[in-house]
Amino acid sequence: MDPSEVEFLAEKESISIVPNFTLDQIYLISGDLGPFSPGLPTTVPLWMACSLKQRQKCRIVPPDWMDVEKLSEKKQEELESKFFTQMPSNHYLEVSQLLLQCATDDIPKADEVKTLIKDIWDLRMAKLRSSVEVFVKSDATHAKLNHLTLMEINTVRPFLTAALDHMHALRSNLTSGSRLSQD
Amino acid sequence: MLAEKALELVREQHRCTDGALAPFNEDGIRQVLEEMRALFEQNQRDTTATVSGEVGLFSSIQLRHTALERNKRCVLAYLNNRLEHIKRMRWEFGSVLPADLRYNLCEQEVQWFNSYNRMLANYMRAIGDTGGVDLTQDMKPPKSLYVEVRCVADHGEFETQDGDLIVLKKNSQHFLLRSECEHLIRQGVLEHIVHRM
Amino acid sequence: MSQTTGHASDNYFSLDDILTTQEKLPCKVEMPIYRLGYLDQSSDDSTLQPGTKLEMPFWLARSLCSRRRHIVSVEMPRAYRESYRQIFKADPNVVDLHKLGPYFYGFGSYLLNFQHSEAADIGNSLVKTFQGRFRKIMDSSQNALNQDTSKLTEKLDESEKKIFVAGQLGLHDFQRWETRQTEKLMTSAMVQKHRKRKRAVLEETS
């Protein structure tokens, strides 16, 4: 999967906006949106929020978790935990990336938010790599990792599947008594 | 050693996995087929001899037979991998191949390319009820309906969907429907301009 | 990567598998093989006589040496013998597997088919060697962005190289996304390469 496809999925996440225009409710396959009235918050998919914001048709209300204090706590928790902690959004990186790109002015302390998100991502990727190493070196046949997000899995997927395939082939050499007796 | 020529074909194809397709090696194929014919005839002679009572020929027959199978595998793998490459070319270059690349295909490969082209076109036309879907478009989720582009090369006149005629001249810039110009971008005629926010 | 499973039928058209099965091993002829003496270039005899020693590619040796047929007997190649296995065990990361046969794991796996007395040890050694080298392959493939990777991969065997490339791909795609390059529609990779080559040819001839 290409990261842009992961982003496409993330764009379906709902987000709160404050429009500055008037429009009746609109009916889309994915659900009804609006009505839109100036100053009244409403919920729309992220892709629409970004598009409206780019045309200066709304102000974006950042999600609760996109906050320096909350993210610092999250970072600390991730740092102290041996396991992956649950993220406030399954698309935390994509949502931040998109909002920080189009709505910096709506996010308090945007720069600090950006750094914190990046720190959390780096922490989790390092953790992921260590778990992969432990897994490959053990003789385990399966592993369970909770709370990984799609973008995180997607980034290691090509590598992980190739490495595990190789490992599996080498291991099955040792147990394939059936094959050895075939001829 | 036996099957050396066939191995050369495989090596040749292996080398150009990421690059351009090499010219079809007709001479190489011919040499492999010659070796195979010789092996086959010798084996036929030895089997006839065995039937009429001669003993001890089994090891030679087995060895030649293995070499025959090996030759066959190498040639088939050579042809198969070329076809896979040609299939990829359809998706990257579009339905018309540049002349210098076309020149590297043998006649049967050109035929194969044409029928693949036809099948793909028929299939894409048959999707849905409204005239089909172009599967080679929007390979990544599109971000906008229109895109800004710059011409990298002179391409001549271009008629847009609403009937406007524009001239794609080198370094000229245009604002076009993404669906209309994505092919030209992929073929390197136009360059997509992205504005940083 | 079924190239290590030992069934040619799994990947009949695989060029890598064909090259893997082309790797040679020392063989000894056990029965006369008439009219094929020319395969041994050191002798003028028209027959390959019992006792003749020669190197054969795996694909041939496999067909002449099995539980049912003993037309030749085989020896394990140097890189899979005890002395080498000790080296791999001591420090798998310093070994140049590319030099020891670019298809080290695949060929090694195929060799197990001969049911040699050391087969189990060889099989184990292959697993341990890869486990030992894994972290380094992962780290180098995940950290090296936009730099010359030939130095990092020169000691890897072909299957390790594929894993390395897969790691680079994931990282590269992510990095392109992170810097918002994925928004830009690009010229197809094949078209780009084709242009480059054409330009190079033009420059040569002018």
Automatic annotation (TrEMBL), chain A:
User: Which SUPFAM superfamilies does the UniProt entry name for this protein?
Assistant: GINS helical bundle-like, PriA/YqbF domain
Q: Which UniProt keyword terms apply here?
A: DNA replication, Nucleus
CC terms in the record's Gene Ontology section: CMG complex; GINS complex
- Claim: Nucleus is one of the keywords in the record: yes
- Protein's cellular compartments: Nucleus
Residue ranges occupied by any GINS subunit domain in the UniProt entry: 65-169
The Swiss-Prot or TrEMBL record describes its family as follows:
Belongs to the GINS2/PSF2 family.
Query: How does this protein assemble?
Result: Component of the GINS complex.
Q: What is this protein called?
A: DNA replication complex GINS protein PSF2
What taxonomic lineage is listed for the species of origin?
A: Eukaryota, Metazoa, Spiralia, Lophotrochozoa, Mollusca
From TrEMBL, chain B:
| Listed InterPro entries | GINS_A, GINS_bundle-like_dom_sf, GINS_Psf1, PSF1_C
Q: Which GO terms describe its biological process?
A: DNA replication
Q: What is its main location?
A: nucleus
**What SUPFAM superfamilies would the database entry show?**
GINS helical bundle-like (SSF158573)
Q: Give every DNA replication complex GINS protein PSF1 C-terminal domain span.
A: 143-194
CDD domains in the record, alphabetically? GINS_A_psf1, GINS_B_Psf1
Domain GINS subunit spans what residues?
57-127
Name a single GO cellular component.
Answer: GINS complex
Q: Which domain of life is it from?
A: Eukaryota
Query: Keyword Nucleus, does the record have it?
Result: yes
The subcellular location is: Chromosome; Nucleus
Q: Which UniProt keywords apply?
A: Chromosome, DNA replication, Nucleus
Q: What does this protein do?
A: Required for correct functioning of the GINS complex, a complex that plays an essential role in the initiation of DNA replication, and progression of DNA replication forks. GINS complex seems to bind preferentially to single-stranded DNA.
PANTHER family, alphabetized: DNA REPLICATION COMPLEX GINS PROTEIN PSF1, PARTNER OF SLD5
Could you say which protein family the record assigns here?
Belongs to the GINS1/PSF1 family.
Quaternary structure and interacting proteins, as annotated: Component of the GINS complex.
Query: What name does this protein carry?
Result: DNA replication complex GINS protein PSF1
Q: What is the lineage of its organism?
A: Eukaryota, Metazoa, Spiralia, Lophotrochozoa, Mollusca
From TrEMBL, chain C:
Domain DNA replication complex GINS protein PSF3 N-terminal, which positions? 13-65
Which InterPro entries would you find in this protein's record? GINS_A, GINS_bundle-like_dom_sf, GINS_Psf3, GINS_Psf3_sf, PSF3_N
Which terms are listed as keywords in the entry?
DNA replication, Nucleus
The UniProt entry lists the main location of this chain as nucleus
UniProt keyword Nucleus, yes or no:
yes
Family membership, please give it: Belongs to the GINS3/PSF3 family.
Q: Give the Pfam families listed for this entry.
A: PSF3_N (PF22466), Sld5 (PF05916)
What name does UniProt use for this protein?
A: DNA replication complex GINS protein PSF3
Q: How does it assemble?
A: Component of the GINS complex.
Which organism is the protein's source?
Batillaria attramentaria
| Its job | Required for correct functioning of the GINS complex, a complex that plays an essential role in the initiation of DNA replication, and progression of DNA replication forks. GINS complex is a core component of CDC45-MCM-GINS (CMG) helicase, the molecular machine that unwinds template DNA during replication, and around which the replisome is built.
A GO-annotated cellular component = GINS complex
Could you confirm whether the keyword Heme appears in this record? no
Cell compartments where the protein resides: Nucleus
Domain (GINS subunit): give its ranges: 81-178
